[in-house]
Design a protein that fits this description.
- By secondary structure, the protein is an alpha/beta fold.
- It is 37% helix and 16% strand.
- The protein binds thiamine diphosphate and magnesium ion.
Length: 598
């Protein structure tokens, strides 16, 4: 036991858990914590962005790259209100961060002091935050801190990781008590669940009987760091792999077995394989609407015609959308290792997937023939495909792409070939605008020796333009590629489609004659001390990106992209009651069309 201030105990806890950064913004509520961080500044670093949203996205991205969590620090009231959105972004995608929020002094609870949320209950910010975290803790005395901190850190990293909130009243930072720093929590991935031997055997029986099997992998495979096992298993049995965006790169996507993403904005071979499969082995993926063509039968998936083996660490995900034939509660890497070792005890299988591989090859060829010509077109404004293609050529395999939200992201989901896991960051489940532009900063701190490029729509970037200041203040050399189409184009396209070409509030205009408007992003960057270049000709993009990456300093490329070229739909997406559109390329499975084997 030692006599310690609450804030010092928190700082010691962070250090003991090897948390190197706190991304946070000051307020009167957390000055006690800031002073403690000041005392420990050779062991833990405060990075103070200009908006709490950015702090949240930075911490989220840091975890996605390293699978080690950092903390955020916000003040009471508005400061903590600003972190609600990024917490849900992290929660939706199972990303961990320790959100320390300050609150009003316990002595003043319920007296409506400055910045208290108290309409229904005292110091109630925890209940604002509660739905967007895995768990919220509110230690109201210093001697409650050790347990709360240990439980919070363990909860954050165990099982399916997620953001956790520790809400600390002002006085708890300052007051002292005789306390002990809690032991460090097990790091992410230290405790893993496995499948029962019967389930492993049953899964392999089904897989070996299949003639059109497909693996569907999601963030669970990335989080379990099961890339080696996934690749070995897929290659051993020749099973093609469909990836959700947060599963990108768990198998090298230039491998012919990798079919890319599925759903409306997926790749044609992935949707074809998904809807024609006889057995789907889903690992750490959750069949959300965008990767399941809104569950419309026959577009991306074809259950119950196809059999489903569904593996996840979270029981809530098993069968959420499709009842599995075999539901298995297990960590992805453990399960894949179990499958691989079970496979060693089985007789070698003949090459029964020849026909399936030939079909897939045919679909991949059709897709390539349909899409390839557009990748070669030079134009002003620039065709989207060229930007994706040039990024693919310029960026090394270990570069990290921090994607934002919108049609710019759709292009990367459809065409990006990640070579390694944890190299493509997506706000997938919640799609919070600003995630890519801000997350890039956290990603770079997580991987200082690798290039980090944010792909951010003009709309996304203007939500968090102050990321420029943080990059300069802390010398974080990220490259922002602004996908500038002078519109919230993804939403404008939905409006156009649903409402007979009418549009309101989905593009950027100036004046009565509706001249397209945007700030001069490059000049904006320069004003903040960041290098900025405007690119309007496709011929110039590749060189500009090469230069920006090599410069190894904060860099912004304002790239003017054609808003009227849209990613070809290969599946469907529906917002009831609106009717959905048929795919532009490919068609849904209908009975009689290559019926999957039973
Ligand atoms: C914080 C937030 N507000 C609103 C939305 C809804 N939304 C999704 S995409 C989008 C437009 C994105 O515009 P931009 O960044 O320019 O990307 P584009 O679609 O033009 O490529 C909007 C407003 C959102 N996802 N997140
Ligand atoms: Mg835009």
């Amino acid at each position: 036991m030692a006599r310690m201030k609450g804030a010092d105990l928190i700082t010691e806890h962070l250090i003991r858990n090897k948390i190197p950064y706190v991304f946070g913004i000051c307020g009167h509520g957390n000055v006690g914590m800031l002073d403690s961080l000041y005392q420990a500044k050779d062991k833990i670093k405060l990075v103070s962005p200009r908006h709490e949203q950015v702090a949240g996205h930075m911490a989220d991205a840091y975890f996605r790259v390293r699978h080690e969590a950092v903390a955020t620090l916000t003040s009471c009231g508005p400061g903590s209100a600003n972190i609600v959105m990024p917490l849900q972004v992290a929660l939706s995608d199972s990303s961990a961060l320790l959100a320390i929020t300050a609150n009003v002094p316990t002595q003043q609870f319920n007296r409506s002091p400055f910045q208290e949320v108290n309409r229904h209950f005292q110091a109630d910010m925890v209940n604002v935050i509660r739905p967007v975290v895995k768990r919220s803790f509110q230690p109201t005395r210093v001697d409650m801190l050790p347990l709360a901190l240990r439980q919070a850190t363990t909860t954050m990293l165990s099982g399916r990781p997620g953001p956790v909130n520790v809400d600390v009243p002002f006085n708890v930072f300052q007051e002292e008590d005789d306390v002990e720093v809690p032991p460090a929590s097990p790091p992410h991935g230290a405790q893993r669940s496995g499948a029962s031997p019967d389930d492993v055997a049953a899964a392999l029986d089904l897989i070996l009987k299949a003639r059109r099997p497909v693996l569907f992998v999601g963030h669970g495979v990335t989080l379990a760091e099961a890339s080696v096992e996934l690749t070995a298993f897929a290659r051993k049995l020749g099973i093609p792999v469909i990836s959700s965006p947060n599963g990108f790169g768990t198998i090298d996507m230039t491998d012919p077995l990798s079919l890319g993403f599925i759903g409306r904005n997926g790749a044609f071979p992935a949707n074809q394989a998904g809807r024609h499969a006889d057995v789907v082995i889903s690992i750490g993926a959750r069949f959300d609407d965008r990767s399941a063509s809104s569950w419309l039968p026959g577009y991306s998936w074809n259950f119950p015609h196809s059999k489903l083996i569904h593996v996840d660490v979270d029981p809530d995900e098993l069968g959420r959308n499709y009842p599995p034939d075999l539901g298995i509660l297990a960590d992805a890497r453990t399960f894949l290792r179990q499958l691989l070792s079970e496979l060693e005890h089985r007789k070698p299988r003949e090459d029964v997937l020849k026909a399936w591989h030939a079909e897939i090859k045919g679909w991949a060829g059709e897709w390539e023939a349909f899409t390839k010509p557009n990748f070669d077109i030079h134009a002003t404004p620039i065709r989207p495909e060229r930007i994706v293609a040039d990024c693919q050529v310029v960026l090394p395999d270990d570069a990290i792409l921090a994607c934002d939200v919108g049609v710019n992201h759709n292009w990367y989901m459809q065409y990006w070939k990640a070579r390694r896991p944890q190299t493509m960051l997506n706000s997938w489940g919640f799609s919070g605008m600003g995630f890519g532009a801000a997350g890039a900063l956290g990603a770079k701190l997580a991987a200082p020796d690798r290039p980090v490029v944010a792909i951010a729509g003009d709309g996304c970037f203007t939500m968090v333009p102050h990321v420029l200041c943080t990059a300069v203040e802390y010398n974080i050399p990220v490259v922002w590629v602004i996908w500038n189409n002078f519109a919230w184009a993804s939403i404008r396209d939905i409006q156009y489609g649903m409402f007979g070409g009418r549009e309101l509030g989905t593009a950027f205009y100036q004046g009565a004659n509706q001249t397209p408007y945007n700030p001069d992003f490059a000049a904006w960057a320069r004003a903040a001390g960041v290098e900025g270049v405007t690119v309007t000709k496709s011929q110039d993009f590749k060189g500009a990106l090469e230069h920006a990456v090599k410069a190894n300093k904060p860099f912004l490329l304002d790239v003017h992209v054609d808003a009227n070229v849209r990613p070809p739909a290969t599946g469907a997406w529906q917002l009831p009651p609106t009717p959905y559109n048929e795919p532009v390329f490919g068609k849904r499975w209908v009975p009689g069309d290559m019926v999957p084997a039973k």
